[in-house]
Amino acid sequence: MLTINLSHYLIIAAALFCTGIFLCLTKRNTIAILIGIELMLNAANLNLVAFSQYDPTKLQGTTSALFVMVVAAAETAVALAIIINTYQYYQTIDPQKINSLKN
Amino acid sequence: MKPHNEVVVFLQSLYKDSALLMPEWVLCITFLGLFVADLWFKKQRIWLLWSLFAGGLVATMIVTILQFNSCSCQFEQFFFAKMLYLDTFGVFFKLFLVGATLLTAFLIPLSPTFRAKENFFRGEYFYLIVAVLIGAYLVAMAQHLLMFYLALELISIASYLLVGFNFDKKSAEGSLKYILFGAFSSAMMLYGMSLLYGLTGTLQVGEPQWITTIFKTPTLLHYLALSFFAAGILFKLAAFPFHFWTPDIYESAPSPVVAFFSVVPKAAVLAFVFRWASWFPSGQLEWVYAVGFIAVATMLVGNLAAFWQDNIKRLLAYSSIGQAGFLLAMVLVGKDFNLSSLLFYLISYSIANFLAFALVDIFAHFFGQQNEMPYAIENYKGIGTVKGLESVAFLLAMLSLAGIPPLVGFSAKLLLYSTLWENYHLLASQWILWILFLSVFLSLVALFYYLKVPYQTFFLPNTSAIPLERPSTFYDVYAKVLVLILSLALLVLFFAPNIIMAAIQQIKLG
User: Fold this and answer.
1) pLDDT tens for each residue of B46-81
2) Which residue range is the domain that position B333 belongs to?
3) ipTM of the assembly?
4) Other C-beta atoms lying within 10 Å of the C-beta of residue B171
5) What is the value of pTM for the model shown?
6) Residue B155 lies in a domain
7) Whether residue B227 is found in the same domain as residue B90
8) Buried b (16+ CB within 10 A) or exposed e, A25-63
9) Taking a contact as any Cβ pair under 8 Å apart, which residues of chain A between 62 and 101 contact chain B?
């Protein structure tokens, strides 16, 4: 009988985190990159909640995860506003085509 | 005690602690006041909003000074369920941050956007800066990783929006790049934070048991967690390897905002980094190597890449990366005698930087609205004969950043070198000697690109048509006064460094 312990949570979180980084680095659509960042944040949340079980006194991890979700929502709202603003100037949201600044 | 009573006691302690947050309350009231005033007033509002903004900052400064005075007699203390920590070090940084923001407020009327469309100017510009300042205040006091994350995100989210305030094509691209890089690195930081929580069992940092777990007996996982955590911090410091966003953002954002970014978030994060560095166990050199490596790499990248820039804002961006490297070199060893040289360097760097960005805007306005590239360095050819005062001030700012006497930048660099030399003797590590040599060498190299613009202004003949002399307006007088005050500050602080040194030397890290 397989029991689910801490390491299972950590492996899933690590896999989520790597998927997030992969999305950020490969996708050519800004929305998809945002999804990747969201996955990375959720991996961290999963870690926080999993570790929180072993925190004897307070539920610091669980509380933090709640705060992180709110911050992530705010960040996404700002990001979407910025993406719409950029689309009006460039007619695209492919980050590789948005390069009028000299590199 | 019954659970109910515990809650009451906890709430009472929160109520009692909120008195210690006076400067932050004043900032919050300023934020809300600006928000309401922005909705309320329709015409002739720009100067009204500006005065509300500056007034709120002055009030915050006064309250922070009061806190500094009361703090230096009391002992250091934790408050808000040990989330925040108050000591003279933190309060001094808060004072520095609000001072820098006030300088930003004086820079704002010089920006071309402000001059061009007075009545259409967005009020959000002001209160987003206040939001960044609240975040910076909290970062300077944070002693809990969740608190640090929230405060850093407050800085970041407001900054993403501020970059876009030129409302043009470049600005939109800059804010998009900034939010993508910023959110990516803060997600990495959060993942590192969650691993640190798992390794130590608490998010509270700085306790003896926490220090032992993290720094004394590190395993591979500790290194991994700390390097993830460092990603977010290095991003805000614009340090290697998270520096690549800097030139693009500096080129596209409004100059006052850039001057603000190059000082305020950096200083706040530096306060946090310095607290961490003070916990490094003495005798264990791997942490010194790690920070030293990042400092050296940052110095190299910033100072060498600056050569090839032909846009003044990009040049200043690379210069600020290089300066961040020098600041990080001071963090090398967390000992008390580093503290005053770090703070002095920070102050001297910010004054010169604010002067440089003020002049960039003044010149950009002089070159005219119809000029396609008001920030190109070739515009500055032969301008020294037309704009004498401003050109000399530019020379002073650049020389101070490069560290040439008789300017305050020289004293700051000298303090840096002597601190490194003392640390070399203290730790007997060849590595620190190498960092010292490299930073002296790079300061000499930096002189070449810092003199790029003064060379254009004074030694090259004017080729492009100089814009017609317009009648002197209020803005021109204002600009001249501001430039004069800042240039004098650079000179005065060289001859009488005791003006700030006396205050700095009282400061202790809790």
Assistant:
1) 888 899 999 999 999 999 998 888 766 555 677 777
2) 281-510
3) 0.95
4) 23
5) 0.93
6) yes
7) yes
8) eebeebeebbbbbbbbbbbbbbbbbbbbeebeeeebbee
9) 63-64, 67-68, 71, 74-75, 78-79, 82-83, 85-86, 88-90, 95, 98-101
